[in-house]
Each structure stands twice: as structure tokens, then as C-alpha cells.
Design goal:
heterodimer, A: mainly alpha, B: 55% helix
């Protein structure tokens, strides 16, 4: 009898210890402990080479006791996906954790068009009555969402009225941080840049974390693998900036298959702005151009006028002169007059 | 030792004991030797040549190993038998012989000329085709399934990792 009691007590004690044990296994030793389960070893190895190597796993990933117990159960039951990855809810939670270190970037993103919510995007009456929603919408909007368009919006037609199947998702950002950033991407930590790479972070063109989350591969694709398209104005190839960061922009703001400028959602600059990078005018996280004109004008202006008040879509959205494609000839159909730059205008040195 | 420290150490040890045996196993289903044999088999099916990647670079054996815990679970016995059989045929040296020698052996099995006692009545033809099919999947498929590591086959073929795909005009654009 005593033996049975002792065994029962031992089993009960083991059961009691299991919960804190699984939790401790994840938390102890940082990344090393996480890599014990070999399914996530590649991710841990990538993190050790990344610019975020000094940030511990649990600072970004939720590591509550129940979550850790679920992970261990999945591990033992063999219910591990081919490539372990973060769920949609984890990605959204991560956005708030990014904020704890990247407050300025977060504030800019929050105030820009790329923080658009599911509600304003997928329940837009004007859009939905003109174009039927489809799974491909998720390629650029809500790429981490698990499911098809019918799992998010009902009905999927042009009649409406439309509503989200899960009301709790209405304020969900369609483009969270991990849409364009991959935290485990190889690179140097920001503060160690000068010391390690011999360059200042101000000289760096792109942070190593820039990567597009590809819904098809369920993985981030690094900036170097994002192609820049060849865009044509009729037969003429439009001069393009070689700025590789535009690869991210072109994944969503892309011309149609023929590569014609202005087709699809293309915004490739042409005319007076031809050859400029998207990022020359658009703020990284906010996406706006509010202060960008002053970066070049009036110093580089051809006519010395206040370009911000010119008849373009920059001053007025209804203008027929789109700021992306405006040409001198649009306002001067009879030919561009000689320069009238005032003597007080600041000029660039020859 | 304080009570809290005791529980932390005890719980850590308990879990460490549970996870420890898996720490050295890089594959999910196959043993280290089975994995090496499968890798050599896949390498003979799609060898890497000058400048072009093969099954080894695409990590197709890892793809198969992952899928053996999932969709290919039912094929586990066939894999284990085939990997053991090919090792027996070469006296446990299948991973050591050259690609050319491996190719000769695999061609025999492809034709169903394997030892019936080792390979069954079809001489190994069925399992050869199974492994060939899975190797091709792992080589050309999407990396999300565990193979085609770093898109090596797509890069070789000039297929963009993510193409630029435009959509119809968004209203107001």
C-alpha cells in the first residue's frame, strides 16, 4: 500500500512540476533553451546572426506558461508545422512589442496609410461595390491572416452589406511591422554598426530587416530577392532608380503584366521626377510626402516657382497633373519658357 | 539551497531530461544514419553539377523527413525498409561510394532488378518511384514545405522568388 501511495505521490509531484518545468525550459538560457526543440533550431540560428541578436526570445515572443505547455505538447505529439512560424495573432502582438523599442517608427507608421485597418479596407462600400473581394487581396493586405477572404468578410459579392466574420478584427492593422520587416534577418545591431562594419548607420541605405512577408511561401523574402520591374511608357523603358528598397513598394504598387507605366497600381515617377526612388519623396514608415518637396526644391527647380502650390495632385488631389508623372509640357504645351529664377532663390553651386 | 532554487533546478532538470535526447537529432523522423543514406540517394537522383544545385543543396532529404511526420506518414515503413535494403546491398557503404556507383545501383532498382528478398516482389521499382517523386517535390516545390532551401531550384531556373504582379486599377488611383 505504501508503495502505491509513494508512486501516486511521485506521479502527482511530476505532474505538478511539469508546468513550471516546461515554462522554465523556454525561459532559461534564452535562445539556447528555445533551440532544444530542433524544429525551431534554424530560426534560433538565424536570430543569433541577426541585428536583433541582443534581444532575448521572450522579449518579442509570447512566453506564458500555458503557451509554453501547448508548445511542448505539440512537440511531443508531432503536431509541428513543416516550418514553424508565427500565427496571425502572434504577429499582431509583436507589433506592440516592436513599439517598445521603435517608438518613433511606430508612431509614424500608426499615422500613415500603411496602418490601415481591416474594417476600413475590407468594408469599404465604394470598393466592394465596384470590385469583388478575393483571396489575392491578402497578398498585400493582411498577408498573415490565416484563411481565405470568405473567412474574413461576408458576403463576398458586390451587393453587400459587408461585415467582418470576426468583429474583434475590425481594428487589426492590415500591414503590421512584420509585413515589411523580418526580425531574424542577418545583420549587425544598429548600435554596433560603426564598430563592426566600419560604416555609420546614417550611411546605410537599408536596414537588414527589410523583407516582404510572402504569403505564398509563408516566409519573409529578403530585399535582394525582390525584383524591380522594367516599366515602359509605350515602347520607351522608363528610367528607374536603382534603389533596391523599391522592391518592397513594387510588390503591391505594381504595373500590370505588360509593364506599362500608370497601369494597375503603378506609381513609377516619370516626367520631371523620372529616375527618382519612391523613398526620395515618401517617408519610410508614414508613407506621406508632406515635407519632401523642400528636400530638393527650389534649389533643383527648373522654374524657381513654389512647387507645392503648382497645379498637381500634391496640392490638390483632384488635379489632372499627377505628381508622379507630371511633365513640363503639361503646363507649357507651347514649349518651356526660359528660366525665371529670382536672384534671391538659393542655388546649388555649379 | 532555498526552496525556490530547488524547484527551478528540479523543474529544469525534468524538462532537460525530456528534451535532451532530441537535441542531437537534426531530423524529425529518420535516424542520423537513415538521413545520411536518404541524402546520398537523393543526391544521386539530382546531383549538383558545375554551378547548378542538386538535391543536397535543396535539402530534399529534410523535406522528406518533415513530410514523413505529416502527409507522408503512411510511407514511413517503406522508407525504413528501402534505406535498410540499399545499405545491405552495399554492405553499409552506400554513403561512401561515388555518385556514379550509386547511380548504377539505383538504375537496377528502377528497373525492378533488385534482390527480391530485400526489395519485395517488384524488385524495388515502386519505392524507387516514390522516392524519386518526393525528391522532385522537395527540389522544385515551395520552400514552405521544407525543401528547395533558399529557393535554389527556382534561382537555377530563373524563376523570381516573388514576381511583380500587378492588379487592376484601384479606384481613385
Amino acid at each position: 500500500m505504501k508503495t502505491v501511495l509513494a508512486i501516486a505521490m511521485a506521479v502527482a509531484l511530476a505532474g505538478l512540476l511539469l508546468a513550471p518545468a516546461t515554462d522554465y525550459a523556454y525561459k532559461a538560457g534564452g535562445g539556447e533553451a528555445c533551440a532544444r526543440c530542433h524544429e525551431i533550431a534554424p530560426q534560433v540560428e538565424a536570430w543569433m546572426e541577426s541585428s536583433h541578436r541582443e534581444v532575448r526570445c521572450e522579449q518579442c515572443h509570447h512566453s506564458g506558461m500555458l503557451t509554453n505547455m501547448r508548445r511542448v505538447r505539440d512537440h511531443w505529439a508531432g503536431e509541428v508545422p513543416a516550418k514553424p512560424r508565427m500565427k496571425h495573432a502572434d504577429v499582431l502582438a509583436m507589433t506592440e512589442r516592436c513599439r517598445s523599442c521603435h517608438q518613433q517608427e511606430y508612431a509614424q507608421w500608426r499615422n500613415g496609410p500603411h496602418s490601415v485597418t481591416f474594417e476600413s479596407l475590407f468594408l469599404d462600400k465604394k470598393h466592394n461595390s465596384e470590385r469583388i473581394l478575393m483571396d489575392d487581396c491578402f497578398r498585400c493586405h493582411g498577408m498573415h491572416f490565416e484563411g481565405g477572404i470568405e473567412d474574413l468578410v461576408q458576403p463576398v459579392n458586390t451587393e453587400g452589406p459587408w461585415e467582418l466574420k470576426r468583429a474583434d478584427l475590425k481594428n487589426t492593422p492590415a500591414l503590421p511591422c512584420l509585413s515589411c520587416h523580418s526580425v531574424h534577418r542577418t545583420g549587425q545591431p544598429l548600435k554596433g554598426h560603426v564598430r563592426k562594419a566600419g560604416i555609420s548607420w546614417r550611411e546605410e541605405i537599408a536596414r537588414p530587416s527589410l523583407a516582404l512577408f510572402d504569403r505564398r511561401s509563408l516566409a519573409p523574402v529578403a530585399l535582394g530577392d525582390l525584383p524591380l520591374p522594367v516599366v515602359y511608357e509605350d515602347e520607351r523603358p522608363v528610367k528607374m532608380s536603382p534603389d533596391q528598397r523599391q522592391g518592397l513598394c513594387y510588390q503591391c504598387h505594381a504595373p500590370l503584366a505588360g509593364g506599362q507605366i500608370k497601369s494597375g497600381d503603378d506609381r513609377t515617377p516619370m516626367g520631371v521626377h523620372e529616375g527618382l526612388s519612391c523613398l526620395a519623396c515618401h517617408d519610410h514608415h508614414r508613407g506621406t510626402t508632406r515635407t519632401s518637396c523642400a528636400t530638393c526644391h527650389p534649389r533643383l527647380s527648373n522654374c524657381g516657382l513654389d512647387v507645392e502650390t503648382m497645379d498637381t495632385t500634391f496640392a490638390n488631389k483632384e488635379s489632372k497633373h499627377n505628381i508622379h508623372w507630371v511633365k513640363c509640357a503639361d503646363c507649357h504645351p507651347k514649349g518651356v519658357p526660359p528660366k525665371r529664377v529670382s536672384s534671391s532663390s538659393p542655388r546649388l553651386a555649379p | 539551497m532555498k526552496r525556490r532554487s530547488f524547484f527551478l533546478v528540479a523543474s529544469g532538470a525534468l524538462t532537460g531530461a525530456g528534451c535532451g535526447h532530441r537535441r542531437s537529432a537534426p531530423f524529425r523522423t529518420l535516424s542520423e544514419s537513415e538521413a545520411a543514406t536518404l541524402e546520398a540517394w537523393c543526391d544521386a537522383l539530382i546531383p549538383s553539377t558545375d554551378g547548378t544545385p542538386g538535391a543536397k543543396e535543396a535539402r530534399t532529404s529534410r523535406y522528406i523527413d518533415i513530410q514523413l511526420t505529416r502527409r507522408f506518414r503512411k510511407f514511413r515503413p517503406q522508407y525504413q525498409q528501402a534505406l535498410a535494403a540499399i545499405e545491405k546491398m552495399t554492405g553499409g557503404r552506400f554513403t561512401e561510394i561515388s555518385v556514379e556507383e550509386r547511380t548504377v545501383l539505383l538504375e537496377k532498382i528502377e528497373k525492378g532488378e533488385g534482390d527480391k528478398a530485400l526489395w519485395g516482389p517488384d524488385g524495388g521499382r515502386e519505392v524507387f518511384n516514390l522516392i524519386l517523386q518526393h525528391t522532385l517535390q522537395g527540389f522544385y516545390g515551395n520552400p514552405r514545405h521544407g525543401g528547395n532551401h533558399d529557393y535554389v531550384s527556382w534561382r537555377m531556373l530563373g524563376i523570381p522568388v516573388v514576381p511583380v504582379r500587378g492588379r487592376g486599377v484601384a479606384y481613385g488611383a
